Every structure is written in structure tokens, then in C-alpha cells.
Inverse folding.
């Protein structure tokens, strides 16, 4: 019984983070399944099946709270679905482990940029509200979908920082649009896994428990991201990206840092992250009216 409750709680926690910051549902859930001995392909398949329900619930909740840009959803989601299907079927045997440190470096740079950008300078007023082009979103979506299917997670960590860094979409709509488009990725990846693996290696009870937890948390996460100040949201996402990709690098063959070194780095990053979030909140309170004006001008550009 305790194990069943644990799966539901993992679904709740993963969806709260994913729905609030636009990433980490797949990574969190897959990590748990791997920890209890599930093989990687089956773990990824289980998570993606659960995500069909959780991403649908999250998308509806984000849409209700006005967090979705549908042009971004389709332009990034359809190529993402193609990449996810390819990654789950014909290409799923290709290991992405060797590329993980390279991607971690790129994402780490993006994370540092976002943390500094939103903490020190606030909203990117010059470009906010300008349309995101398909030639940027399509390859981003395909790559994110492929990484997501082969690694058990990656749609949010790839898509969210890249779109945030463009400076053309406010943070809550980046999170909402990425969460909503993930429904397409979950369907495509699940179909691909069912074609490649069949259903024999998938524990439907685990799917159901993760699904229940995620659906319970989805409306709460969507409401939260609707009310978090954009400066704070951008800083928070940047900090999470830095922490997760630092972890990847420190554990990679490139560095192989010892446990004390890793823990020291994590504590240092957490301290900087907390301080930056506090400063971003302070700046938001000082410049609240200016931020509202920037968002109003962005809405007028987007209309």
C-alpha cells in the first residue's frame, strides 16, 4: 500500500514541478522507475503513457488560466511528435548517453543566461510579444521530442529554456505552451513504444498511479504559474536548469566528481538560486507597474 501511495505522490510532485516550471515530469518519474529495476525502454514507455492523461489535464488547466499560445503549441508540438515517434521506434536503440554532457553544457549556458537575464534585467521588453518563427520552433520541437522519447524526459528541459531565451514569450505562456504541446509528444511516443515493445513490459498499475497523481496536481500548477511574477518565474526556471545540468556534468565521464564535490556544488548553486529568486521578487515589487506595461505592450504586439 505504501508503494502505491508513493507512486501517486511522485505523480503529484512531478506534475507540480512540470506544470509550474515547464519541465521535470518525465525525468522525475523515469528516475523512480529505474530505481526500482524497470528497464529503460519500459520505464520511458510507462511515463509517456501516463503523460497522455497528465499533459491533457495540464493543457486544459493552462488554457483555462490563459497560459497557452496556440501558435507555439502547433509549431513546436507537431515536429516534436514526429521526433518522439522516431525516437521511440526506429531510433530508440541509439544511445544518447555520449551526447548528454554536450547537451548539458548547452543547457547550462542557457540556464545561466536566463538566471542573469531575469534576475538583473527583468522582462525582455524589446522582443516580448513578437511572433516565434516556425523555422526556429520546428527543429527545436523535433530535437526535443527525440530526446524526450529516447531519454525518458527532455521535452521541457530542451523547449522551455530555448523559448524563454528568445525573449518573445512571457514565462507563464512558455510553460503553458510547452506543457500543452507535450500532449502530442506523449501520444506519439506511446504509439512508438507500443509498436516497438508491445504492452507486455508496461505496468498499467504504475501508469494509472502516475496518471492519478499528475491529474490531481495539474490545475494547481497551472493556477500557480498564472500568478507567479514573470521575473521570479524566469529566475526559477534558470536556476533549475543550472542545477539539473550541473548534476549531469558532474556525474558524466567528462568529470566524474566525488560525492563531496558534487554536494558542495549543489549547495552553492542552491544558495545562489535562492538569493537570485529573492532579489527578483524584490525587483518585481519595485517595478510592478513597469512590468505590467511591458506585458500589456507584448499582448498588443501579439494580437
Amino acid at each position: 500500500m505504501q508503494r502505491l501511495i508513493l507512486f501517486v505522490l511522485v505523480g503529484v510532485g512531478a506534475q507540480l514541478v512540470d506544470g509550474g516550471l515547464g519541465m521535470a515530469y518525465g525525468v522525475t518519474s523515469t528516475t523512480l522507475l529505474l530505481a526500482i529495476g524497470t528497464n529503460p525502454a519500459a520505464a520511458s514507455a510507462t511515463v509517456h503513457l501516463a503523460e497522455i492523461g497528465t499533459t491533457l489535464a495540464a493543457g486544459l488547466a493552462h488554457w483555462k488560466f490563459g497560459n497557452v499560445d496556440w501558435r507555439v503549441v502547433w509549431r513546436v508540438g507537431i515536429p516534436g511528435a514526429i521526433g518522439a515517434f522516431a525516437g521511440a521506434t526506429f531510433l530508440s536503440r541509439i544511445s544518447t548517453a555520449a551526447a548528454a554532457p554536450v547537451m548539458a553544457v548547452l543547457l547550462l549556458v542557457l540556464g545561466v543566461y536566463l538566471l542573469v537575464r531575469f534576475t538583473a534585467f527583468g522582462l525582455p521588453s524589446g522582443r516580448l510579444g513578437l511572433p516565434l518563427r516556425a523555422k526556429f520552433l520546428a527543429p527545436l520541437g523535433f530535437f526535443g521530442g527525440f530526446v524526450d522519447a529516447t531519454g525518458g524526459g527532455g521535452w521541457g528541459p530542451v523547449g522551455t529554456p530555448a523559448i524563454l531565451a528568445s525573449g518573445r514569450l512571457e514565462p507563464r505562456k512558455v510553460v503553458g505552451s510547452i506543457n500543452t504541446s507535450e500532449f502530442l509528444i506523449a501520444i506519439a511516443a506511446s504509439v512508438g513504444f507500443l509498436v516497438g515493445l508491445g504492452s507486455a513490459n508496461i505496468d498499467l498499475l504504475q501508469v494509472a498511479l502516475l496518471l492519478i497523481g499528475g491529474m490531481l496536481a495539474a490545475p494547481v500548477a497551472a493556477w500557480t504559474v498564472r500568478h507567479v511574477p514573470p521575473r521570479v518565474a524566469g529566475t526559477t526556471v534558470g536556476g533549475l536548469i543550472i542545477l539539473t545540468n550541473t548534476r549531469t556534468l558532474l556525474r558524466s565521464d567528462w568529470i566524474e566528481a566525488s560525492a563531496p564535490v558534487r554536494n558542495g556544488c549543489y549547495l552553492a548553486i542552491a544558495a545562489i538560486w535562492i538569493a537570485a529568486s529573492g532579489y527578483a521578487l524584490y525587483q518585481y515589487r519595485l517595478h510592478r507597474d513597469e512590468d505590467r506595461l511591458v506585458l500589456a505592450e507584448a499582448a498588443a504586439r501579439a494580437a
User: Anything to note?
Assistant: The radius of gyration is 18 Å. The mean pLDDT is 82.
